[in-house]
């Protein structure tokens, strides 16, 4: 699986997206990260491992504590890939708006 594929698989889950969102505020210990989730520490750890496999999270051990850090590079790859489609849809929607404006003008001219 490519890095982009792994990032999409990891981000497909809402719990993992919440973990990523929390990590945008800075590093955090795994035990603190797990507190707001209505699941076991073990379940949260499984989500974190998937994010690690995708390269979105880096774990650092300091003694017995595990700290998590967000890695932005995979998110940049997702953004680059999706931006291609944003440009496509912007062009399509601009063309639709132009068409509808022309239709409105034609109707307005026809009613005079």
Describe this structure in words.
The chain is of the alpha+beta class and 112 residues long. The protein has a domain at 3-71: Arc Repressor Mutant, subunit A (Orthogonal Bundle). 67% of the residues lie in helices and 12% in strands. It has helices at 3-11, 14-23, 30-34, 41-53, 73-110, and strands at residues 28-29, 57-62, 65-70. It has a 3-stranded antiparallel beta sheet. Strand 2 (57-62) and strand 3 (65-70) form a beta hairpin. Helix 2 crosses helix 4 (41-53). It starts with a helix and ends with a helix. The model has no long low-confidence stretch (mean pLDDT 93).
TL;DR of this structure?
With 112 residues, the protein is of the alpha+beta class. Helix content is 67%, strand content 12%.
Descriptive key words:
single chain; 112 residues; alpha+beta; Arc Repressor Mutant, subunit A
What order do the helices and strands come in, and which of them pair?
Elements lengths: L2 H9 L2 H10 L4 E2 H5 L6 H13 L3 E6 L2 E6 L2 H38 L2
Antiparallel strand pairs: 1-3, 2-3
H/E series, N to C?
HHEHHEEH
Query: CATH fold name of the domain at 3-71, please?
Result: Arc Repressor Mutant, subunit A
Largest sheet: 3 strands, antiparallel
Residue share in helices?
A: 55-70%
Sheet with most strands: strand arrangement = 1-3-2
Number of strands: 3
